[in-house]
Design a protein that fits this description.
alpha+beta, Alpha-D-Glucose-1,6-Bisphosphate, Chain A, domain 4, about 35% strand
C-alpha cells in the first residue's frame, strides 16, 4: 500500500492531518500507484480569489518564485514543460512534465513524461476551492512519487530537506505569503550597506 502523508494548513495555523486525504487525489484513469509509491498532500487557505491563484499557478514560469528547489521551468507547449530541480546534496534533477487535466479556476494535474529518462517518477495535482466563510481559496497540492533509491533515497532526501512531503508544505506556505503580501519572508538578513 502507498505511504501517505497528508496535512492541512489553514491561515497561519500549524499543519494538521486532513480530514479526507483522498478528496483531492488524481482521477483513477490518470495515475497508477505502486506499493513503493509515497503520497504527499498539503492544504493551505489563501486570502485571494481562486481564479487569480489558478492563473498564477498555471503560468508555470511563476512557480520558481515560490518553489525554492526549482531552478527553472522551460515551457515547451501548452501541456508540456521541462523542469530543472535541485535535489539532495546539490544534485540537479531534470524531467519533462505533461499536464493531463486542466480545469480553469479549479484544478491542474500533471505526470512525468514516461517517454523521457527521468529518474524521478511522479504525478500530482493542485486544486483550488472556495474557502468557507468567504475567506479566500483552499489550495491543495498532492504529489504521488516513487523516491529514487527507495527507502534509503527517501531518508537522504529528508536529511537534505528535499523530500517531496517537506517541499510541498514549505512551498504552499511560500505561495500563500507571495499571493497575500507580494513577497516571501526569509530568515536571512538583508545585505548590509557598505560602511564608509
Amino acid at each position: 500500500m502507498a505511504e501517505q502523508t497528508s496535512r492541512t494548513m489553514h491561515d497561519d495555523a500549524p499543519l494538521s492531518k486532513a480530514k479526507d486525504p483522498n478528496a483531492t487525489s488524481l482521477p483513477a484513469a490518470s495515475v497508477t500507484t505502486r506499493p513503493s509509491d509515497s503520497i504527499a498532500s498539503e492544504t493551505v487557505t489563501v486570502n485571494r480569489p481562486r481564479q487569480q491563484l489558478y492563473e498564477f499557478w498555471r503560468k508555470l514560469e511563476n512557480l520558481p518564485s515560490f518553489m525554492d528547489n526549482v531552478e527553472r521551468i522551460d515551457v515547451l507547449d501548452n501541456q508540456r514543460s521541462h523542469w530543472v530541480v535541485l535535489g539532495p546534496a546539490g544534485r540537479r534533477v531534470e524531467w519533462d512534465s505533461i499536464i493531463i487535466d486542466d480545469r480553469p479556476g479549479d484544478r491542474i494535474a500533471w505526470t512525468v513524461d514516461v517517454d523521457g529518462d527521468s529518474s524521478v517518477q511522479h504525478s500530482g495535482s493542485v486544486t483550488f476551492k472556495d474557502a468557507t466563510g468567504k475567506r479566500g481559496t483552499t489550495v491543495t497540492a498532492t504529489i504521488i512519487y516513487d523516491p529514487p533509491g527507495g527507502a534509503i533515497g527517501k531518508a537522504i532526501a529528508k536529511l537534505f530537506q528535499r523530500e517531496p512531503a517537506i517541499q510541498v508544505r514549505r512551498e504552499l506556505r511560500r505561495f500563500k505569503q507571495l499571493m497575500e503580501t507580494g513577497e516571501i519572508a526569509t530568515a536571512e538578513p538583508p545585505d548590509a550597506a557598505p560602511r564608509a
